[in-house]
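Hello,

Our lab assistant flagged a job as stuck in the queue for most of the afternoon. It eventually completed. Since we weren't sure the result was trustworthy after the delay, we are filing this so someone can double-check. Below is the sequence as submitted and the structure that was eventually returned. Let us know if re-running is recommended.
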Amino acid sequence: MISARMSRPVKVLLVLGATLAVALLTAACGTEKITVPKSNKAAYAGAVLFSQRCGGCHTLSYAGTHGSASNIKTRLITNGPNFDLRCERPATRVLYAIENGGFSGATMPQNIVVGKQARDVALFVSTYSGRKAQPSVDVTPCDKQTIGLIPTPAQSAAATTATPTTTTAAAAKTKTKASKAKKAAPKTKKTAAKSPKPKAAATGPKIATATIAGLGPVLVNAQGHTLYIFVPDNDKKVTCVGGCASVWPPAMVPSGETAAGSGMVKQSLLGADPDPSGGQVITYAGWPLYTYVADSAAGTAGGQAINLNGGLWYVISPSGTVIKVKPHS
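-- returned structure --
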């Protein structure tokens, strides 16, 4: 309490000081900040994406995330490794886990980030993981292990399509003889009908179907995990972002590619919508598609007809119909 006899200048200073202290405490309370320098653009971008897409399941303090269980006895199936303690190098190993849903494929969604975003996250995790692990005489410290380089799509394509540019003298002579023989042969009229050129096949992530008891045929991803629609999306745009996306990871498709349907999936109903967090989300009949982290195994649909993260979630049939049947309890 400020005394009534206190001079006005002193009162003003005390009030200002108290106000500043409260503001500082309020600003500091409960906030977590990414500590990767912004000057390292790729790693910083990876930290932001890791915080948005992986923070619900993993701990990595450099991204301000604490999703791993602190007590192994109370952990959930969705609690992932603590990357403050677990070293993940080289970066290509992290990229493999991102593209293939971890190393077991049991819980982590495949391609939770794709393209350049996947490379940024892999670089961030490989650079900053394992920094708080206790030293061991039998283990090489994480910062002493090589991070390695991640090839860009252009470099990978160049490596796989490169062909020799020189021929041997014998091969050149054989080619010349074949050319002369072709010219000398009598010309015959071509009568065979030209076959139509096949359409280019979709090369993106696979979308298939599976039959779930009580629901019938529904859409699933390449690992057999059930795909859901989010009612607030209103079959128009992606609205599940941030913390919502860490529980319901969107089914991503690399830029320039199209998801490939199999089974009863209709290719004409497959498309993509922009994700506000970056990248493209696979759509079906206009609905963005998501997996559910609590579906720990293929053939389960624990997210069916539940109201979570701001709205209802349903599976979708191969015909594009949203299935609203509630599972039997």
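-- support follow-up --
The delay was a queue issue, not a problem with the job. The result is valid. The chain has seven helices and 13 strands. The chain has two domains: 41-153, 206-323.
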